[in-house]
Design brief:
alpha+beta; Heat Shock Protein 90; SH3 type barrels; 10 domains; eight-stranded antiparallel β-sheet; 26 helices; disordered N terminus; disordered C terminus; Structural maintenance of chromosomes flexible hinge domain containing 1; chromosome; ATP binding
Length: about 1800
């Protein structure tokens, strides 16, 4: 059948040996291989499609098969089909062959080695080839040689790498096996790849040695050669073979076969004779092989691996990093070299610790730990010489040996596995706590692990698979090896003991002695290493001691230096002597005169060889070379001596100067401290300084350079003509950085000083000085007369000179002059109050004072800002003041002085002062406030006899009176009292002002006598009526009231009636004798029968019963045959006794009240309880120190009294003494009693700055600090002046709360006090603290008062040219306080043009100078005699400015001091000058007044702005209404029915008694309360006490019947943070059901929470509550299975599972709550109740804020009313008028100021902005 007829074929892979087989033996036993074809016959007549395998070699199987067989390939499958698209009747098999791509081999090296943690893996690729060489040479009897050759000579061909060994070599079969990828030694014994040698036998392991059988996986060699290059040539000769075998594998050959579709994994092995290189003769790229093949002669066996096509980056690495990769290669193969890490570890170790670890897979690991000790100044732990050392910030002190490197390197079969390290084991890890071994010792050991081949490694032998995981398995057993013997010991303990022994035996540390203190170093760049540093005075190091002050020399520093030890430094918190591994030393470089520097170096850099003598000699030699002194000579023989005095004009000089060192040698340069450096040249600077009155002036200044001929030379100086003291300065200077320095290395260079004085010459002429024309009273003036020498200096008169004072100068045309002066009142000197002491004023009235301001002569004087204030007046919340700026006098009208409840005379000191004039002494006046004679109290009393001097009864205000219904209350009187308590005489006019509400017509005559109309009592019983008496007049209204309660008549009245009830007249007076009265217990002896004629009735009085029990009695009246029965209720008698029925006999209370009520009972004298309610119960204390406020309230029908809220006073009764109760006062931890203020007392309070932090603590009665207080209740008060001496601020002194914590502007003493608002009426005051406000930093120069504008005329009269005669300028802060008292300097005065002027022709000062200097001492400069020169330049009529610029050291361009500017006017015309002078003076006065007005109005505007921002509309009644509603709702909730503990608790409230357990806690849920109460049923009535003493007392009082629990004997470990048992490490060990929770967490403690936690923590422990029994059992099961003990479990259904697992039965089932009979925990108040309480508190705070806001609103309204007052309107009009005048004058002067220019005052708002910028 042809192929078109349906024949299809498919290829089968050669590796499928099931279908294809080859055999060398054919059918006939020949060597010709058989060719077989698998045939599936799928024709329709065939249904089984059987598979047939036919050998088609020579087999005649139909003709077409013979034809087809010619085209069949080995292993093809032949399908016989009818047609090509025939459906297969059954499934068939088609054999295929699948082989990996050659990239699997070629790229394997890159994949393996490039995944090696970013390191260069080339050495490890070499190691793989070395492993093969080691295996090949393992059986060598002689020398084992392995060569690595790098053939990089391009003249010999391509770059190549050759690895050659003299091992056993490989046969062609072994070479073929080597070429097969992943053919390991363990799989070579089977199949096609079986070796032609004996089978593999695992060699015995050799501990810690390189195993010769490390060629393991069958992949390493192939991966290595293709990682190194692109091609490899294997050349090998096996032992005993004459042939050499060669195999070439290359990437290029693989690619060629793929292109030609040839079999990739096929090739040939070339077998040749020794030294046959015929095959490479034509290959120029492999010329290097000639020499290699030539070496084959004489070798019995060898193998050479030739790698070509080496990667360029590998070539670079192999060339440049030869030492690095060879070192890493030898480390992998464990070769002996000097600088590999293991060799370094072994050579530097002092002791070893050997151990062994065995895993559960026959894995064995032998380990060694080596200890590298610390030797005095260095760690011996070796550093990797090829590692990149990055300086660790901690290395400055810690110098840890190993650092963060892992401990163990790992070896497998002796081969280093470089990429696997083991950081540590648990038993050798860093300790978590400080132990007996220092922590740094744990970084001083290294380690190595040797494993057998039971542990898996990667095929490239770079990484262990799971070594660390297996070693840290719990099943791994560690043992110690001692002397080769294995010991089963506790490895952790053995290691710790070994490490401790190593530390004690081998470590040599530095001993630091003489601890001084701990410091913070700012010279350390790393912030975290700046602190802490301990400082020491000495150390012991290697047998030598070093101490502070000792000379040392450095070593290994750049440069080497000498110095003295300052101190030794050690990082960390240390105290006392301590050993450490090193530290640092601070050294002051010597000689200090040359260096003046401090260096800090490690202690290890101290030279320990040099002696102290050698160091000192070196220092002295350096010092002797330095400049020491100046030698000054006078070449012309005219020397000036020290303090010499010479007349003006005397020449000085010439001078010759030399610089000498200590050896006396003349030098001109600074000796160099360093070699080969340029020495700095020295020069001499000459300065002559004139110490003028205005400051030092430099008159001469010269610098002389050195000359080899005459050294330093200065010429003669002839300009010394100024009078005063001079100083000649000769300074050695050094030109450094273009500046002449006189200091070198911190020491002054040699200098010479000559002090001398220049005096005036003989007098030659004289001048009359200027007399000021504007004089003030009390200010003296002079007429100066000056004698001058030829230089114009004031000269002394000659002895025979006698001056004459005359007003006529004869011989002159104008021989006389007229001097006009204006005499004005002087400056304010005193304050006068015309009213003298004593001043008497009635309470409630006002008083006025006439005040005047006088000068020193007693004249009334006016002055700007002359405001007189009065302080210290009660009833006045602000200061009272009057403005006397214009007149100097005024009247102060004070507000009415009001004292509340004044009883006697009160003395008040009124202080009058002038705030702007601190020099004027305040004046005080004593005001004697006497009680007013006006009516202040009205009293009503009852007096039966008008002549009686004793009142029978006084009615208190609002008193209730029991009176008989229908009766008449008579004999009522009234009295009026004034404030002193005196009776005010009555008059008819006053009587007309008396009003009563029970009578319309009242007799004025009786009222004038003090009588009130009688009060008719209504007839209706049990009805109350209100009665009031009032008195009203202007400003006075007093009243008193009382209430009458009606009661029935106590006496029976008998009348005779007929049968219809009509009254008859048959009774007569004789009928009384036949009247009889009878009743049980009636005392008949006291009966009295009285006939009443007016009513024809009989009155029975004296009805009295004998002592007995109260109750119902039948009173029988009998007369003849008539009888009448009256049933009466017999009650208790008159109260005579008061007894304590219930309540503690001895109680411990807090000062705020007694919690337990006292139940009191009134008894009559026979012991019957009395229901009388007309009583009041009062409490008296045994000591006046204890004050008790109390209230009583009557409750119950039998008169049980308890402490309540209502006062009930008895009406005309005698007192009854009651029982006594012992009180023990317990401090209340929540009651504030004291304020403790802490602040930095060393703080400085600069004016206008920010106050320091004041820490205020509120201390309770028990001395603890109260923390839950509202900060809004704390206020800080500040006032100027001394403390008041009392607990509160002084009366009459204005004080306020500082805003933004700003310190006041003005200097002086201020007092600060804090107050805590406890409630609306009570405050807690702190002590008063005085702070001294000092001036702030100086910012400007200025005068105390602005001087007038000078006006000068350019003529020859000195007076006309005077700018300033005498003016004091001071350094001031921004608030005009004198500042800089410690500063000195100078003030430079210059002249500049005014603003807007371009005039450059400026006037000059006297002496034709542009500037003058005045000395500034202690922050003040005195400017005197400042004139312009005669014929000075300047433009007529111009305004110039005197600029006074301060020059103070420390203040420069960055922080300049503002200069003071004083404008002046310059004229050439005298008349114009006079006119302008007058205008200028008027302008100054107007400007000063306008500034005062502006300041006043600006202050008012700021005050209005601040008050308006704090005002808000509030509705306080609405807030009160809401508070009342919320309070009512809270009370309703409080009265709602809820579960309570019904057990009596009589012990609660006593000293150190908390109460019964049932009363200590509350439980919200009823089911929870039931089960917990039942669980604690045996303890719920136990009394808990704080002390054993209190518990013992209760025990004794109850004869041991009451169980008690003192807390001072209870041990309790706080475990509230411990989680539930099912939670471990923050995660649930199982999922619980039933909402488990600790039972103790469901308790609510209203009081003593901390103590209650102790109580219930001991009683309940870890008892858990769940929902039901099933969830409880589920929970217990889960906990127990987690191997955790389970506590007792309770359920909300009342079940209990004990801690031992037992449940069920009556003893484990809680009864219903009713059966607990009240022994159950109570329920808390509803949550809404606490919400209401919180809302009420917030509303009360809001109400208080609104109250303050309302007060602010009142102040705002008052201030606005004051601003609109006629006085302020008038002041505003005056200001406008004066501003207009000022503008006119400025227009005339031609200097119109800019509108709105600042007056120079700093407002508070501006100050706040400045403060915000500063802070």
């Amino acid at each position: 059948m042809a192929e078109s007829e349906g024949l299809t074929t498919s290829a089968v892979a050669n590796s499928n040996r099931t279908h294809i087989s080859q055999s060398k033996n054919g059918v006939n036993g020949s060597d010709k291989p058989h060719k077989r074809v698998v045939i599936f016959d799928c024709r329709p007549e065939r249904h089984d499609a059987m598979e047939r395998v036919l050998d088609i070699n020579g087999l005649d199987f139909n003709d077409f098969l013979q034809v087809v067989s010619k085209n069949l390939q080995q292993g093809n499958t032949l399908h016989l089909l009818q047609t090509e698209d025939q459906i297969l009747p059954v499934a068939t098999k088609e054999h295929i062959v699948f082989l990996p791509h050659y990239d699997t081999l070629v790229q394997s090296g890159m994949y393996e080695y490039y995944a090696s943690e970013g390191q260069n893996s080339l050495p490890y690729a070499f190691a793989e080839l070395i492993d093969n060489a080691l295996s090949a040479t393992s059986r060598n009897t002689g020398v084992r040689t392995i060569d690595i050759r790098l053939l990089f000579d391009e003249s010999l061909g391509k770059h190549a790498v050759v690895i050659m060994d003299n091992g056993c070599g490989m046969t062609s079969k072994q070479l073929n096996n080597w070429a097969v990828y992943r053919l390991s030694k363990f799989s070579r014994e089977s199949g096609t790849f079986s070796s032609d040698h004996a089978g593999y036998v695992r060699p015995d392991p050799v501990a810690r040695s390189l195993n010769s059988d490390i060629s393991y996986f069958g992949v390493g060699g192939k991966q290595a050669v293709f990682y190194i290059g692109q091609s490899t040539r294997m050349i090998t000769k096996p032992a005993g073979s004459p042939d050499v075998h060669e195999l070439i594998i290359s990437k290029e050959e693989f690619e060629r076969k793929e292109r030609n579709k040839e079999d990739i994994y096929s090739g040939f092995i070339r077998n040749r004779k020794v030294r046959d290189y015929s095959q490479i003769t034509q290959n120029v790229d492999e010329r290097f092989l000639h020499g290699l093949i030539a070496e084959e002669v004489g070798k019995d066996s060898f193998t050479a691996v030739v790698v070509t096509g080496v990667q360029p980056e590998h070539v670079t690495f192999l060339k440049q990093d030869f030492h690095l990769w060879t070192r890493e290669l030898t480390a992998c193969e464990k070769s002996e070299i000097d600088n590999d890490m293991q060799t370094l570890y072994i050579n530097t170790s002092a002791d070893t610790f050997e151990f062994k670890a065995c895993t559960d897979v026959d894995g064995i690991v032998e380990g060694v730990l080596r200890y590298h000790p610390f030797l005095y100044d260095r760690e011996t732990y070796p550093e990797d010489p090829y590692s990149c050392k990055e300086k660790d910030d901690d290395s400055i002190v810690m110098n840890q040996a190993r650092g963060k490197r892992p401990i163990f390197e790992c070896f497998w079969n002796g081969r280093l596995i470089p990429y696997t390290t083991v950081s540590e084991f648990d038993w050798c890890a860093w300790p978590k706590k400080t132990g007996t071994v220092p922590a740094e010792c744990y970084s001083r050991f290294s380690g190595v692990l040797f494993t057998n081949d039971r542990f898996q490694v990667s095929t490239n032998k770079l990484t262990f698979m799971d070594l660390e995981l297996q070693l840290k398995n719990k099943e791994t057993l560690f043992t110690r090896i001692v002397n080769g013997q294995e010991q089963r010991v506790k490895i952790h303990k053995e290691f710790h003991q070994w490490l401790k022994t190593c530390h004690e035996k081998w470590d040599k540390q530095v001993k630091f002695r003489g601890f001084k203190r701990t410091i913070t170093r700012t010279d350390v760049t790393t912030k975290k290493m700046q602190s802490p540093w301990a400082t020491f005075s000495s150390i012991e190091w290697d047998g030598r001691a070093y101490k502070a002050g000792q000379y040392v020399k450095s070593q290994k520093t750049q440069p080497i230096f000498f110095g003295s030890v300052i101190q030794f430094l050690l990082y960390g918190d240390h105290e006392g002597d301590v050993y450490a591994t090193g530290g640092q030393v601070q050294v002051a470089m010597e000689p200090k005169a040359l260096y003046d520097d401090i260096k800090t170096i490690p202690i290890s850099k101290i030279d320990r060889v040099i002696t102290n003598a050698a160091i000192k000699k070196s220092i002295d030699d350096e010092l002797a070379k330095l400049p020491d002194k100046l030698k000054v000579t006078w070449p012309e023989g005219n020397p000036w001596t020290q303090n010499d005095v010479r007349p003006a004009g005397t020449p000085l000089g010439p001078l010759h100067v030399e610089i000498l060192n200590k050896k006396g040698e003349s030098i001109s340069r600074i000796p160099s401290a360093m070699q080969n450096t340029t020495r700095k040249a020295l020069s001499i600077e000459l300065k002559v300084v004139w110490h003028s009155p205005n400051g030092d002036v430099e008159t001469n200044s010269h610098i002389a350079a050195h000359s080899a001929k005459w050294a330093f030379w200065f010429r003669t100086m002839e300009n010394l003509n100024k009078l005063g003291k001079y100083t000649l300065h000769l300074n050695t200077i050094l030109n450094v950085n273009e500046s002449n320095a006189t200091v070198w290395a911190g020491n002054q260079l040699p200098n010479h000083t000559l002090d001398f004085s220049i005096t005036e010459g003989s007098a030659e002429r004289f001048v009359v000085g200027t007399v000021n024309t504007l004089l003030h009273v009390g200010v003296p003036f002079n007429i100066p007369l000056e004698l001058l020498d030829e230089y114009g200096h004031p000269a002394r008169p000659t002895p025979n000179l006698k001056p004459l004072l005359e007003l006529v100068l004869p011989g002159l045309k104008q021989d006389s002059q007229t001097l006009k002066i204006s005499l004005l009142p002087g400056n304010p000197d005193s304050l006068k109050v015309k009213q003298e002491d004593p001043i008497t004023v009635e309470n409630g009235t006002s008083v006025s004072f006439d005040v005047e301001v006088h000068d020193v002569a007693g004249n009334v004087t006016a002055h700007p800002k002359l405001i007189i204030s009065c302080q210290g007046i009660p009833g006045s919340s602000s200061m009272v003041a009057v403005d006397c700026s214009n007149t100097g006098a005024g009247t102060l009208v004070l507000k009415p002085i009001t004292f509340k409840n004044i009883a006697g005379d009160q003395t008040v000191k009124a202080t009058f002062d002038i705030p702007s004039q601190k020099s004027v002494a305040p004046v005080q006046r004593d005001l004697r406030v006497v009680p007013s004679t006006r009516v202040s109290r009205l009293e009503v009393y009852s007096q039966e006899d008008e002549d009686s001097l004793v009142d029978s009864m006084v009615l208190r205000d609002k008193e209730k009176i029991d009176w008989t219904a229908g009766d008449l209350l008579e004999n009522l009187h009234y009295r009026l009292y004034d404030e002193r308590g005196r009776v005010v005489p009555l008059s008819e006019e006053m009587a007309r002002r008396i009003k009563v509400n029970w009578a319309a017509d009242v007799s004025v005559e009786e009222l004038a006598q003090g009588k009130l109309p009688n009060v008719p009592v209504p007839t209706l019983v049990k009805e109350e009526h209100f009665y009031q008496v009032s008195y009203m007049e202007e400003l006075v209204s007093v009243d008193t009231s009382f209430t009458i309660v009606n009661r029935s008549s106590p006496f029976p009245v008998l009348q005779l009636t007929d049968q219809y009830g009509n009254k008859t007249q048959m009774l007569t007076a004789t009928c009384v004798d036949s009247l009889a009265v009878d009743a049980e217990g009636l005392d008949k002896a006291s009966l009295v029968f009285t006939w009443q004629e007016s009513t024809h009735s009989m009155l029975v009085t004296g009805v009295r019963f004998n002592p007995g029990l109260p109750g119902i009695r039948e009173l029988n009246f009998t007369w003849r045959d008539f009888a009448e029965h009256v049933t009466i209720k017999l009650t208790a008698g008159v109260p005579a006794q008061l007894k304590l029925v219930d309540g503690p006999q001895e109680v411990g209370i807090k000062l705020r009240g007694i919690q337990t009520p006292f139940l009191l009972q009134l008894f009559d004298e026979w012991g019957n309880p009395s229901p009388d309610q007309r009583v009041v119960v009062t409490l008296k204390t045994s000591t006046p120190a204890l004050k008790v406020s109390h209230f009583t309230n009557v409750k119950g029908t039998w008169g049980f009294y308890s402490i309540g809220d209502i006062d009930l006073w008895s009406f005309n009764k005698k007192p009854i003494h009651g029982p006594a109760v012992k009180l023990t006062i317990i401090p209340d931890p929540n009651k504030p009693v004291k304020l403790v203020v802490e602040y930095n007392t060393n703080s400085v309070f600069p004016a206008g700055g920010t106050l320091t932090v004041f820490s205020v603590s509120v201390v309770s009665e028990e001395g603890s600090t109260i923390k839950n207080l509202n900060p809004a209740n704390m206020s800080m008060l500040l006032w100027k002046g001394e403390p008041s001496g009392t607990s509160r601020p002084p009366s009459g002194v204005s004080y306020g709360t500082p805003r933004d914590k700003v310190i006041p502007d003005h200097v002086g003493k201020y007092t600060i006090q804090f107050v805590l608002c406890v409630d609306k009426t009570k405050g807690l005051w702190s002590h008063q603290y005085v702070i001294n406000v000092v001036p702030n930093d100086p910012v400007k120069l200025g005068p105390d008062l602005q001087p007038p504008t000078p006006v000068v005329v350019n003529n020859n009269v000195l007076d006309s040219r005077t700018l300033v005669e005498d003016m004091s300028l001071k350094l001031m802060d921004m608030y005009n306080n004198s500042a800089g008292l410690e500063l000195s300097g100078k003030v430079v005065v210059t002249i500049k043009s005014s603003k807007g002027s371009s005039d450059k022709n400026l006037p000059l000062f006297e002496g034709k100078v542009k500037s003058l200097q005045f000395s500034l001492a202690n922050g003040e400069a005195q400017i005197t005699n400042l004139f312009i020169m005669e014929n000075s330049p300047g433009q007529d009529g111009n305004e110039y400015v005197l600029l006074f610029r301060p020059s103070v050291p420390g203040y420069g361009p960055k922080n300049p001091l503002a200069a003071f500017e004083l404008p002046f006017r310059f004229y050439n015309d005298v008349e114009n000058r006079k006119q302008m002078s007058e205008l200028t003076k008027k302008k100054d006065q107007l400007k000063q007044t306008v500034d005062i007005y502006r300041s006043l109005f600006d202050t008012n505007r700021q005050l209005i702005t601040e008050l308006s921002s704090r005002c808000c509309i509030s509705n306080i009644p609405a807030i009160d209404k809401v508070i009342g509603q919320k309070t009512a709702d809270a009370e309703k909730m409080k009265l709602q029915t809820r579960r309570v503990c019904a057990m009596p608790d009589p012990f609660r409230g006593n000293l150190d008694v908390l109460g019964k357990i049932g009363h200590l806690a509350l439980v919200e849920d009823d089911d929870v309360a039931t089960v917990i109460s039942w669980h604690l049923l045996g303890d719920i009535d136990c009394v808990v006490t704080m002390t054993t003493v209190a518990a013992r007392k209760i025990y004794d009082d109850t004869q041991g019947k009451q169980q008690v629990m003192p807390l001072d004997t209870v041990f309790w470990r706080k475990n509230s943070s411990r989680p539930l048992p099912h939670i471990r490490n923050g995660q649930d060990s199982f999922r619980p059901i039933g909402n488990p929770v600790f039972a103790r967490d469901l308790l609510i403690f209203p009081e003593n929470a901390e103590n209650c936690h102790i109580v219930f923590g001991n009683l309940l422990g870890d008892t858990i509550l769940t929902d039901d029994l099933d969830s409880a059992n589920h929970y217990r099961k889960g906990v127990v299975q987690s191997k955790v003990p389970c506590p007792t479990l309770l359920t909300r259904q009342g079940d209990r599972i004990r801690s031992n697992g037992k449940f069920g039965g009556l003893q484990n089932k809680a009864p219903p709550i009713e059966r607990l009979r009240g022994q159950v925990f109570g329920a808390p108040l509803p949550k809404d109740y606490h919400t209401f309480i919180g809302q009420i508190d917030l509303l009360q705070q809001y109400r208080l804020a609104m109250e303050k806001s309302r007060q602010v609103q009142e102040d705002f309204d008052g201030h606005m009313q004051y601003l609109k007052s006629p006085e302020m309107v008038q002041k505003e009009e005056e200001m406008d008028e004066q501003e207009k005048q000022l503008k006119d004058i400025e227009t005339k002067l031609g200097t119109l100021d800019k509108a709105g220019e600042s007056s120079g005052m700093v407002t508070k708002r501006t100050r706040r902005k400045l403060l915000k910028q500063d802070y």
